[in-house]
Amino acid sequence: MSDDKPLADVDVTKAWQATQGQQSAAKRLRIYAALAWIVAIGGEIAGIILLYRHTFDHGNLALLIGMLVGVAIFAIAGSLMWKAANKHDPASKAEPFKFFIQNQLGAIVTLIAFLPLIVLIFMDKDTDPKNKKIAGGIGIALAAIATLFGISFNPPSVEQYTQDMNKCAAQIKANEATTACSPEVAEQAKDIVRDSKTVADATKSATNPAGLDVVYWIAPENGAKTSSTPHVFHLCEGVSPLRGKTVNHGSVTEAYGQNASRITKQIAMEQKQCGFSGTQ
User: Where are the transmembrane segments (predicted)?
Assistant: First the structure.
């Protein structure tokens, strides 16, 4: 695909994937989030036990409210850390159930941490009616606030990051302001630009001093659109690694789209086999 087309038409090179560092950060944040949610649910369980022990029948309103506040604090903390983890390692919209659960888990856990306790507060016949109304009302308000913190209204996705990554790469190539280069996609976009430049430099010739944006790779197995494992793309069909193979060809963009996302390490050898002078 030509680099001078509008950004809206930028083709997808390869699906964005979290780096090892991003995966590690996401895993760490999710562990912390889970611990915070465990504390929140533990606070709920403690409150339920105290209700069954009639601790709040004739007082201790401050203790009950304090427990509700504690549940809210840890539920919100867990949700914020979970959302931060999803920014590092988002789900794919191609899996709708997983996408929904992963992005709305904070709200789901918050409801679990609040609803049983609030219901029991209102259903407890022995608690002072005035205290029950105060504690129940505060519980509902805290639950609503904490749930809002848990909802992802505009959740990140692999698809959105892929689009941003390619826009970022196009902006870098065109020496434009890199408005699409968020921290999550910038490094991989730079990799795309680097590989495209490497191919162009390696395929320069007297008849085409600018180089080519055509590469060759082993076709996906069994007629699939994308290879199940990453393949290497090469400078021409006649190189030794492709002999006897079913080969596809196209731009670097198209190669990445079929999971041929690694450029050959044998640039000099392939230049000779393909008849390119190049600059490598």
Answer: 31-52, 61-81, 101-122, 134-153
Beta strands in 126-201 (DSSP E): none
| Tokens standing for residue 172 | 């870098």
Residues 6+ apart with CB under 8 A from 255: 215, 217, 233, 248, 261
Number of residues in the chain: 280
Distance between CA atoms of residues 163 and 8, nearest Å: 9
75-92: pLDDT as tens digits: 999 999 999 999 999 999
Cα gap 213→11, rounded to integer Å: 14
Q: Give counts: helices (H), strands (E), the chain.
A: 8, 4
pLDDT digit string (tens) for 21-42?
888 899 999 999 999 999 999 9
Centre a 10 Å sphere on the Cβ of residue 45 and count the other Cβ atoms it contains. 13
φ/ψ of residue 75, rounded to 5: -65, -45
pTM: 0.71
Residue keyed to tokens 């055509």: 214
